[in-house]
């Protein structure tokens, strides 16, 4: 009902009530793309889907400002990749720059993230 009251269609993802999941997804996607590049997986069709998902997930995080530099960085790389054929590969210089750009975008995107405490249904972690 909350989505209807706020005029948010069910198809639009956001982090309302699920910030921890969004943070985990962003971290996971940064690691996935970086890991692929470090393992010399450079083909456009191997990198672009993960970079696209990273962009989408960052857009869903309401606590990131709309002008967050990481959005611009990832968007520019998505444009670069979209100009390539599926089998085209990033060269050494592009890989090095993409790794640098991802690291630069990762730090600010996670610096303001703090995981929300989760309920402990079994009372195992609470104070005694």
TrEMBL record:
GO CC terms of this entry: ESCRT I complex
Chief site of localization: other
Molecular function GO labels: protein-containing complex binding
PROSITE patterns: VPS28_C (PS51310)
UniProtKB keywords: Endosome, Protein transport, Transport
Protein's GO biological process: protein transport to vacuole involved in ubiquitin-dependent protein catabolic process via the multivesicular body sorting pathway
Gene3D superfamilies recorded: 1.20.120.1130
Subcellular location: Endosome
InterPro entries xrefs: Vps28 (IPR007143), VPS28_C (IPR017899), VPS28_C_sf (IPR037206)
Domain VPS28 C-terminal: from-to ranges: 18-114
Family listed: Belongs to the VPS28 family.
Listed name of the protein: Vacuolar protein sorting-associated protein 28 homolog
Lineage: Eukaryota, Metazoa, Chordata, Craniata, Vertebrata
